[in-house]
Specification:
8-stranded parallel barrel, 8 strands, alpha/beta, binds pyridoxine-5'-phosphate, 11 helices, single chain
Length: 254
Amino acid sequence: MLEPSEPAARLSVNVDHVATLRQARRATYPDPVAAAAMAEDAGAQGITVHLRADRRHIQEADVEQLRERITGKLNLEIAATPEMLAVAERVRPHQVTLVPERADEITTEGGLDLRRQVRRIADALIRLERAGIATSLFLDPEPAMLDELRELGPLQGFEINTDRYTRARGEAVARELAKIASTAERGAAAGLRVYAGHGLTCDNVGAVARLPEVEELNIGHSIVSRAVLVGLAAAVSEMLAAIRAGRSPGPLRG
Ligand code: PXP
């Protein structure tokens, strides 16, 4: 449990779905870069975007402008492909998170399968390190997977996929949360920075934010959806409050 004096996990707002709305009409608005600036003004400590091979939402020009314009950390999610690594080397975000990507998936479907892709991921990590970019991997909460990380080379941290926890109901919630907690503990004990995200909302974020090892939360869809109703600044403020509430000792929402 976090002491009240310890800082709450940082919030990195994923603005992909601002671009989804723009791309739905191939319009010039809404601008995800303007949204990122508003999210930062509202207290978000970083911005995350996923540049997909099909460019269904974020475009390369968005990533370039974000690198110029935002003041906090820019976390770029990409698949470990030659095309995407070249973009990262050129734009130099502060951090790259390597994610699996399947062309017709609705959203990222799970963490990386390190056992099947060790060579590819290891090569990507070396390229990113040479470019001076911090690295993270999106992983399912399976503590055994952390054994594979030793082989991989230059890696600063990893993001725990919270999707299964956010979809769990009844007794499964505690089970999924326990997997996240033990993965976070083992990762931090191995000297890695621990992040988490996917499917988090104001109602389910508290239990993850409460884990002392989790430094940063990457949250997009629920914030952008809420922003449609209450505005982006209010949606970001609500999420920051829910993250802070997660570290206070009382009962959690949801
Ligand atoms: N982390 C990763 C690796 C993701 O792929 C995504 C979705 O793009 C997120 C976090 C954010 O998930 P959500 O939009 O459900 O908050």
